[in-house]
Inverse folding.
């Protein structure tokens, strides 16, 4: 009977030991560092708007014109929404790399908005369609009208486009 009590006490001490805690912390850090490598964005240049809806989506334009000519105040409002109410930063990350804290757990990983080739191939309306309907085959859920309004979505897209440094040149 005494032997059983000693083993229970020893096992409790192991879980409270620095070695156990260090091991757990190391596993968490390695998971967060390596997850983006294993969950790479799948086909980053492929449109995720269904073919049947693509032509209509491509015709949609923001109320302020095109994101390429968005005024600085629209982009600034988009940044506030991206980092706040829109919750975009959770998946796409602060710098649009698709490496936000939630995004690191997703397979495939979220879009990398710094990819200028992606921006060159997608029209504003296609990106708006994704915000409204979600992105089939990914963790991207519909954001309009549950989380953001259509007007807010266009502003977020103007900011999102700014991650491509060549976009407004």
């Amino acid at each position: 009977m005494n032997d059983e009590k000693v083993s229970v006490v020893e096992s409790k001490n192991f879980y409270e030991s620095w070695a156990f805690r260090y091991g757990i912390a190391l596993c968490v850090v390695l998971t967060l560092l390596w997850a983006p490598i294993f969950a790479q964005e799948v086909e980053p240049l492929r449109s995720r708007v269904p073919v049947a809806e693509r032509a209509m989506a491509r015709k949609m334009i923001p109320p302020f014109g095109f994101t390429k000519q968005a005024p600085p105040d629209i982009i600034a409002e988009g940044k506030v929404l991206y980092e706040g109410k829109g919750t975009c930063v959770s998946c796409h990350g602060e710098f649009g790399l698709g490496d936000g804290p939630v995004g690191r757990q997703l397979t495939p990983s979220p879009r990398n908005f710094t990819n200028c080739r992606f921006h060159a191939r997608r029209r504003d309306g296609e990106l708006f369609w994704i915000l409204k309907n979600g992105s089939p085959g990914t963790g991207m859920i519909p954001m309009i009208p549950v989380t953001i309004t259509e007007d807010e979505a266009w502003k977020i897209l103007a900011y999102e486009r700014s991650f491509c440094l060549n976009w407004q040149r």
About this structure: The radius of gyration is 22 Å. DSSP finds eight helices and no strands in the chain. The chain has two domains: 2-37, 39-161.
